[in-house]
Design goal:
413 residues; alpha/beta; Aspartate Aminotransferase, domain 1; Aspartate Aminotransferase, domain 2; 2 domains; 4-stranded mixed sheet; 14 helices; 15 strands; binds pyridoxal-5'-phosphate
Length: 413
Amino acid sequence: MALLSKFDDMRAALQALAAGGRNPFDVRFEKILSATEAVLEGRSCLLFGTNNYLGLTFDETCISASVSALRAAGTGTTGSRIANGTYGDHALLEQRIAEFYGKRAAMIFTTGYQANLGLISTVAGRDDHLLIDADSHASIYDACKLSAAEVIRFRHNDAEDLARRLGRLKNSAGNCIIVTEGIFSMLGDSAKLREIASVKREMGATLIVDEAHSLGTRGKHGRGVCEELGVESDVDFVVGTFSKSLGAIGGFVVSDLPDFDLLRIACRPYMFTASLPPAVVGSVIAALSRISTDASLGERVRQSSGKLYRALAHEGFAVGPEPNAIVALKMPDREAAVRFWNRLLDRGVYTNLALPPATPGSLSLIRCSISAAHSDAQIESALSIMIAVGRELGVLDSELKNTSAPAPARVRA
Ligand SMILES: Cc1ncc(COP(=O)(O)O)c(C=O)c1O
């Protein structure tokens, strides 16, 4: 049997997708023009499918900090912090992140994926129990596979279900560790963290919140949904990424846990991989300083995404449950989603096509992400193209429509 024959179904699905126009997993930008525009298939298109929520990838301060760090310390560290040493800026970035969150300590990782993989697989040992939201990101699921703990899924965003499942563990040995996200990456809904934190307190569990999509976009100071809902003191570990609002790559964990530094010599995805290169660390320090001192970026992305979300809902699109920097459009089925995604790209709007099994509830989604760098004109232009394509393909007023979405203050088609 051929080695890759186990992927025959996947190959067939990919061929069917590509037959709809393009291969959505192999989109190639010929040139990146700015945080919101790129050249694709020979012409300029609007980027509504990045996670560049604050638009910092072309920020002058971040670029010059990155270039200075590159010149000063070279292109790479060529090894891990444990085996090959920590650079001054690694330690400085950890200090700045801990200060930003008002926590005692921070640990940075080479990606956000590795931050989840490392933290969760290390703190959850053989006798422990991991209780994860059913809609968790792949990095959380993969961390569970790497951990020796028992893994229990609770119903998406359902604190009562979580409490029931924790209740069944009350006489068992080991720690109970709850893992959830601030904002969920597919539908853009936020976690019911007040309810979850109250269950955590009642049951004496540990709580980990992944704020990958909420750092910079939510909370008065940009610290995410934990800050916004006033539960920061209940959260034992906040996980985050540098690859979205901070416009670079990397991940982190912050905590008040005494002995937190012990994790550095226990956490394999931290120990056995090269540390972040100077240019990345330099730009992230600058980006963090930007968001610490400038609340207008977060405000701008909330305003723009709220406007787009309400206008799309008003037109009859079935949108996700709440306005956020991620605006998801639920399509009637996979074929409609593929057609919609291709048609948008034909008209110069790049979004993400998200299909089962990568989506919650087996939904076929067009996932749009909004950036503080999008101009009003770009938002209006993407909106009118989405409405026009929605009408052409007859996906408006679908049965999936979210009737609870509020009417927009102003709608332009
Ligand atoms: C919720 C969540 N956590 C973690 C990650 C991984 O982040 P990174 O891209 O920095 O590895 C992602 C990436 O999309 C995510 O959506």
